[in-house]
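User: Predict structure, ligand sodium ion.
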Amino acid sequence: TGPKICVVGACNIDLISYVERLPVLGETLHGKKFSMGFGGKGANQAVMAAKLGGEVAMVGKLGRDVFCENTLANFKKLGVNVSHVHFTDEAFSGVAPIAVDDNGANAIIIVTGANDLLSVEEIRAAESAIAKSSVLVCQLEIPMDLNLEAMRIARKNNVSTIFNPAPARPDLPDELYQLSDIFCPNESETEILTGMPVETMEQAEQAAKALLDRGPKTVILTLGERGCLLVDNEGARHIPTRKVEAMDTTGAGDCFVGSLAFFLAAGKPLEDAINRANKIAAVSVCGQGTQSSFPDASGLDPEILSDIQTAES
Ligand code: RIB
Ligand code: NA
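Assistant: Predicted complex:
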């Protein structure tokens, strides 16, 4: 059996338009290409961990609409456990219209829809799925009380938590920081959460330390092509990544977080897990789309998965 991960979070359908450049206010642009893909930060992270060979349980909610059956089929195809994926008639499934420009930069609108209707009762009903995992992962695309409840359940059951504060919201409850074993924001999220700049490495370190002071055991600040900054009680370490020609960075953060969860659930030490997750995220930015750009085990340099017991092996 493989490393066990539970992801509580959003499932979206990504509606991606490829454009020369992002539109400005009031402008109508011709796009070059359109594609649809499975997305949502929670779903993306779950799928990434499953692609590496993790035993993954997803907790989330879909609208009973044209998107839900396909989303469910996608999870099942990848071996993600969907016992705690619920359905509602009250809202559409979450969607994310995304524009990606020629440099691979993006602008995203998220309409959370059904994701917002997941209930605290449904989180509690997933206690056993959380408890039997090594790592729980949560993000900010579902209501805050659901994340808090899931993370409380994890703490009570000695399950490690990774909190990915995406998309950023300025005022997070203290308890959320305290329940995070790993608090993992990117640069812009860190700026929003701290009000501090994250341009230089020194600034990044100061901002990460400010987040650490709020209660997580470890802060991993992702810095795009600069890699990551790992900050804990022992200090700060910069963990660089390989430079690549980015084609589409959409979902790269989710690729990193899902991979990180997988390697930690596999028992790898933190810096080793970060190094491996960095390499996988670098692969993902070279491909179009979100989940469609996430490599599976067979598409990776075997070294990245060396000495790991996966669901297949
Ligand atoms: O992080 C990328 C994701 O953000 C996309 O898949 C989109 O659904 C939005 O949730
Ligand atoms: Na990508």
